[in-house]
Amino acid sequence: MIPSLRSVGGFLRGDSTPFQIFSTTILASIIGFLPGFQQAPGMMLAGFLLLLIVNTNLFLAGIVGSIARLLGLALQPVSFGVGRWLIDGPLSSLFTSLINGPVTAWFGFENYVASGGLLLGAVFGLVAGIVFSGIIAGFRKRMAALESVETFQKASNFWLSRFFGWIFFGGLKGKEDWETMNQRKIGKPVRFIGIGIAVVVIGLLVASPYLISNTWLASVVRNQVEPLNGATVDLEAVDLDLASGKLAVETLALCDPNELKQNLFQSVRLEASLSESDLLSRKYAIDRLEVSGAKINEMREQPGKRIGPKPEPSADPDLPDPTQEDEDERTFSIEGAVDKADELKAHLAELKKWLGKISGGKEEDAGIDGEGETLEERLERLAKELGYAQVIASHRIADKPRFTIHELVVNDVTVRQMPGETLNVLGTDLSTEAHLVEGASTLQVTSDSDRLGLALTIDKDSGPLTFHYRELPTETVKGWLKKDSKFPFSGGHFNIEANGTLTGGEVHLPLQVTAVGSQLQLGGRTFNAPEVPFTVLISGALDNPRIRPQLKELLRGAKGQLLEEGKSKVRDKINEKLGDRFNGILGGGSEEDGESGMDKAGSALDSFLQRRKEKKEGK
Predict the structure, then answer these.
(1) Alpha-carbon distance 137 to 148, whole Å?
(2) How do residues 577-618 score in pLDDT, each as one tens digit?
(3) CA–CA separation, 307 and 257 (whole Å)
(4) Please, which residues bridge with residue 422 across strands?
(5) Three-class secondary structure of residue 589 per DSSP
(6) Residue 268 CB neighbour total at 10 angstroms
(7) Beta bridge partners of 503
(8) Measuring CA to CA, which residue among 209, 304, 306, 295 is closest to residue 251?
(9) Are 494 and 513 in contact (CB under 8 A)?
(10) Are 424 and 410 in contact (CB under 8 A)?
């Protein structure tokens, strides 16, 4: 208690100058308005070092910094808007240079909240400096006036006055009188012990890659990956060998943010061959990343914890008025077609988030042709999905991506929902800024049996997407759909082929579906459907698209199957009743003649059915 009171009194009675007060309030306010060390490590470190080097008042810095921190959190949307104006406005060239410059690349100028907070913090600190300077100057003027009053002098010599003066001020009398203190403007500008501490800290940072322990590195990796994953990240150990350029991660597990009882991904070992990187410009690359013992959707021993906000799915798609649509050409949303729609949309939102991390396109080019998102729309979406503090101006990152994996190899991946099947994943030139990669980034997923396959090419934020899934059980698909969906198929399986595009989180994917060995229910009757092809169009936001089954196409295919089945039955009936005698009636002859009687019968039957169909349509 007494040290705190004496800190207040010492601030008033001590050698505080306008220079010290303003440097303290401005630096402390800037630190308080910054979003955090993860987003702006260079700014935070520079702020704290300057507080030590400049002869600031640390007591005042604590007060102002705490107030600024609370204001900074409350005003993050305002900081974001100011950052937009700075980074994408008249100072864009300056900020682009700072974002990509050696050393300054670590300051976090690409973060909108950090850059905006830098300006807002400086303004708040300036105002706070004016307020505190006024308070101190006024207090000292009053005390200087009292010093010449005889009554005050007698009272200040009283033992009780000296006691309280010692508690509040460390003594009422100092080396200088109040008037002299009020006339000083700068005082001692630097703190030499602060310079020494700064030199030690910078030296440790330079040597840190060779001094850090693997335990500490594992903690850093976990803290960096958890916000990206959105849930608990477990890892056993991290081994970094700079001499050989190797990085190994043992027993990595990423908890599923949407199902905390299972892991989205886990691996026994992850090995990376590090590339020559431009660390001063905060750009680094991995030549080859190889993962072994990978598993997907494995159950956890202990449930994980959600970290950060859930990615919000895109708004429901605009659907045509059902009364204006043909009954056989209806368009659905996920909500209108899928039983567990919220769960599916949450998984698609996570997929969209991860794809966004490896396909960060050049936002300033988005929407200029009237398609896709504009920069404004993209930033608003990211702010809702990730929070204001996580949105960066990746389009200002130049020359090379911040992070690149030139080759990703993951073999023999097991999936809990696909027993007996293993997947292989191959990726090339995956980066945080795809528009800076020479050529295209690719991602391929194939199963050993080729039952499942996916290929995605990302070229400047867009590219072709191909997909196939064979022998997907019909009952599995039926279980995904709403109970009242009137799904007409039972038994057999589906073969699905897709060839579409993915652009900036928007998907256009026509699914070519073939029902094989199924039974089809139409008009209250059940028919065998050996092979019925139809198309399902999927378009719009990846995490909340429009779904449009081409039911007319399905009905045409089903009718064709039924017609062929009817023809076959008639042929079999004729053959059974008339046998070889029918051959003679229709011309007989042997098969050596080129066309048998049964062939002629079949042709005649086809002609008859066709004339009957034309006559019916003519009516």
Answers:
(1) 18
(2) 545 544 444 444 444 444 444 455 455 555 655 665 565 565
(3) 8
(4) 414
(5) coil
(6) 13
(7) 462, 506
(8) 295
(9) yes
(10) yes
Q: What is the DSSP code string of 107-124?
A: GTTTBHHHHHHHHHHHHH
Give the number of other Cβ atoms within 10 Å of residue 486's Cβ. 8
Q: Phi first, then psi: what are they for 235, rounded to 5°?
A: -150, 145
Which amino acid is present at 392? Answer: I
CB distance 86 to 119 below 8 Å? yes
Contact between 453 and 445 (Cβ < 8 Å): yes
| Start-to-end CA span in the chain (Å) | 102
Residue 21 tokens, joined = 């007060």
Q: What is the pLDDT of residues 82-96, one digit of tens each?
A: 999 999 998 999 999
Q: Is 402 helix (H, G, I), strand (E, B) or coil?
A: coil
Whether 225 and 233 have beta carbons less than 8 Å apart is answered as yes
Q: How far apart are CA 253 and CA 268, in angstroms?
A: 9
Which pLDDT tens digit goes with each residue over 386-439? 789 988 888 888 878 878 888 999 999 998 888 888 999 999 888 877 777 777
- The secondary element (H helix, E strand) that includes residue 405 is strand 403-415
Tokens of 258: 């949407």
pLDDT of amino acid 148: 59
Rounded distance between C-alpha atoms, residue 616 and residue 600, angstroms: 24
Return d(Cα 326, Cα 312) in angstroms, integer: 32
Instruction: Give burial (CB, 10 Å; 0-12/13-18/19+) of 293.
Output: middle
Beta bridge partners of 369: none
Residue type, position 9, single letter: G
SS3 of residue 15 by DSSP: coil
pLDDT value at residue 598: 47
Tell me the residue type at 594. Answer: G
pLDDT > 60? residue 161 = no
Residues in the chain: 619
pTM, to two decimals? 0.66
Strands (E), 242-299: 246-256, 259-274, 284-292, 295-296, 298-299
Which amino acid type is present at position 474?
T
Whether the per-residue pLDDT at 349 is higher than 60: the answer is yes
